[in-house]
Amino acid sequence: MHQSGRNPKVRNAIFHYASDRIDVDPPLDGPKTKAELDQLAGQTITESGLGGEAALKLFEDVLAPATISTDHPNYLSFIPTAPTELATMFDLVVSASSIYGGSWKEGAGAVFAENQVLEFLARECGLPESSGGLFVQGGTLGNLSAMVTAREKAKAKLGKQPWAIIASSEAHSSIKAVAKVMDCEIVLAQAEDSGSLTHAGAEAAIQEAKSQGLTPFAIVGTAGTTNFGILDDLEAIAKLAQEHQLWFHVDGAYGLAGILVPELKQLYTGIEHADSFIVDPHKWLFAPFDACALVYREPEYARLAHTQHGEYLEVLNHSGEFNPSDYGFNLTRRVRGLPLWFSMAAHGAALYRQAVKANVDLAFKIAEVIEQRPYLRLVRKPQLSVVVFERIGWELADYESWSEKLLADQFAFVVPSSHQGKPNTRFAIVNPLTKFEDLVTILDSME
Ligand SMILES: *Cc1c(COP(=O)(O)O)cnc(C)c1O
Q1: Closest ligand 1 atom to the C-alpha of 143?
Q2: Pocket-testing residue among 280, 282, 290, 330, ligand 1, by greatest number of atoms within 8 A of Cβ
Q3: Contacts of 439 (CB under 8 A, 6+ apart)
Q4: 99-347 and 349-444, same CATH topology
Q5: Quick one: residue 407, left, alpha or beta (phi over 0 = left, psi -120 to 50 = alpha)?
Q6: For ligand 1, which residues put their CB under 6 angstroms from it?
Q7: pTM here?
Q8: What's the CA-to-centroid distance between 185 and ligand 1, angstroms?
Q9: Domain boundaries, the chain
Q10: DSSP string, 331-368
């Protein structure tokens, strides 16, 4: 460590690197093997240290190029990320500020700002002013925190039961992971051919759970499936949840952002009845990794479920103040909502609405092109900004070699996916810099 604890030279070098990384279009880059990295990087942890400049150079020359730039406009796989410049820069400020976001006493100003973002999202969804929540690390932890809260509420009423979560066959894998760590069952409701869970499928799954002797305590609706960007019939699910006294959770990790677009709002009808919802700003709200906004209709149930007790913590627990960590499965908490807050505060909500709409328009436009090309087949009509399609006649191996070539050429990152056992590929579009012409070029490369 530098003797005085200050190291302006390395600091400036890091600022310079970060600023350049934001300013210049990033190369896509790509992975290397462990053996290659062993050879290129060597042993980096030493007794005497490499020095900041050498370590930074190693990152810049060797390590960073061995990571894919998920914010590249032609990174179209999984769910990409496309943070605004301001959100990314403010993430540096969050790091530099050492704010403890778990309690009001320590983080009040930052938590206040994060909460205004949560209030904005809650208003968009039609939840009451008394709703509230926190930012956690990601959608998986958001879903877990909500499901734990739901079960605690049910347990308080019914005691110990053979619990079950009801979710769509197209729900995200994290819901199954949540059921596993909670050691409860999950009963999958059959989605329609459209990819949407409707009343019939959800009702059948509730009955099936009951006939197996299980006690359903929550039903999860997805606002934008990860594979297809399709929304469940949230209104029907809300109604069933009410009839069967189930907690209604909306997993909008990717797709909830679409509610910001007035033309899309009606797709989300029913979300106003949700007991909880999540949305990941690192997916489609233009914030850097990693954050999930989690909102509860009645946060008190979450506080009862999640507050940790310990001799050293009681000073916080007795304060009567709003301590975010009491509402999710975490204790120490980075104020990970702050980059989104800063960017939204600076740009205003209207720009977000426009950016999300532009992604959806682009998805619809490229879907039309796909429908017109005889060698392609659109698997489902898009609802948001995910477009899934097949190259007629291709096996998985064909998709794989095509995908590898696109990356080797440093043009695009588009990986194979599958639906009902049949290989396909998909464009997940969340980056306002993604160009229609480039998408067309990718389609051309499949001919
Ligand atoms: C990505 C995603 C998740 C998981 O979120 P992480 O932030 O990756 O943990 C959950 N649900 C849906 C619908 C998602 O798209």
Answers
A1: 10
A2: 280
A3: 76, 362, 366, 369, 427
A4: no
A5: alpha
A6: 79, 138-140, 172, 174, 222, 226, 251, 253-254, 280, 292
A7: 0.97
A8: 20
A9: 1-67, 99-347, 349-444
A10: SS---TTHHHHHHHHHH-HHHHHHHHHHHHHHHHHHHH
So what's the pLDDT on residue 4?
Answer: 59
The answer regarding whether domain 349-444 maps to CATH 3.90.1150.170 reads yes
In the structure encoding, which two tokens stand for residue 178, read together? Answer: 């949540």
pLDDT tens digits, residue range 215-254?
A: 999 999 999 999 999 999 999 999 999 999 999 999 999 9
Gap from CA of 253 to ligand 1 centroid (Å): 5
Residue 138 Cα: closest atom of ligand 1: 7
Assigned CATH topology for domain 99-347: Aspartate Aminotransferase; domain 2 (3.40.640)
* pLDDT score, position 272: 98
The per-residue pLDDT for 3 is 52
Ligand 1 binding pocket mutation candidate from 79, 172, 271, 383 (most atoms within 8 A of CB): 172
**For 33-75, what is each residue's pLDDT tens digit?**
999 999 999 999 999 999 999 999 999 999 999 999 999 999 9
Q: At what angle do helices 85-97 and 8-23 cross, to 10 degrees?
A: 160
Could you tell me the distance, in angstroms and rounded to a whole number, from the CA of residue 292 to the centre of ligand 1?
9
